[in-house]
Predict the structure.
Amino acid sequence: MTRWYGSLTAPEINSRLSAATVLCLPIGSYEQHGPHLPLHTDTIIAEGFTRRLLDRHGDTYDLVGLPSVPYGLSLEHSWSPGTVSLTSSVLTGLLDALVAEYVRATPARTLLIVNGHGGNRGILEAAIYELRHTHQINICVVHPSSLSTVRVESPLPEVHAGTRETSVMLALAPGDVHLDRIPEDYTLDMDQRDHIRRLVLDRATTWPWDSNDPRISRQGITGGDPRAATAELGEQIINSALDACAAVLNHLTATDP
C-alpha cells in the first residue's frame, strides 16, 4: 500500500484518507553547502527523513507523504552561485495556499511539516499559528537534526555542512557527497568558536549572519569538519530522530483541530 500522496488515484483520496490521516510535508532549500555537498542537501534530508518516517510509523499513525517544497529561506547563503531563496512573504503565502488546497481536496486535517533547513525554523514557528487558526487543522513542525539525541564530538559548534549534516547525507544520498573536493589546506579555525556562538547560536540576540563571513565560516562550511563524517553516524542521527517522532505523533494525533 502506497503512502505517497502522488501515487494515489483520485477515488482513493476519500476511501484511503480520513480526518485522522497525517499529511507529511517535507520542506528544504536550494543553497550552497560547501564544496562537498549539493545544493539540494536540505531537500534531500527532508525527503529522506519523511520516507523513513513513513516506513517506521506510517501504519501506526496513518501517515501520507506529500510532494516536497524544495525552496526555503536561504538569504544567508545568497552570496554563493546556485543558491535560490524565497522571501518570508512568498514562503508563508505558498504554505497558506498549499494547506488551503489540501484541506479542500482531502478529508485530512492534520499536517506534520518535516523541515530540513535550519533557516526555515523561525518563519515556520510563526506560520503554523496562522495555519492552525485559518484552516482549523492540527499542525506541528519537526526538525530532524534537532530531534535527534545523538551528539557529535566537534571542536566547533555544528551549524552548516559540517560533520553532522555530511554524515546524514552519507546515509541518505552517498553519491551526492564529494569529500575529495574539500581543499587539502582546509583546516578548522578555533577562533571561530565564540563568533559562531554569538552570531548564530545565541538565543538572546538574533543576527542576520552570512555563511561567507570569515569569522564564522570557511569554504561555506560553518562549524564541524565534514571529513569526520560517516554513514554510520548519519544512520544513528536519523534513527534517533525517528524514535523521538513517536512521541511527537502521539501528541499530534491526540489533539483535536
Notes: The helical segments are 10-16, 41-61, 88-105, 121-135, 144-147, 163-172, 192-201, 231-253. Residues 231-253 form the longest helix (23 residues).
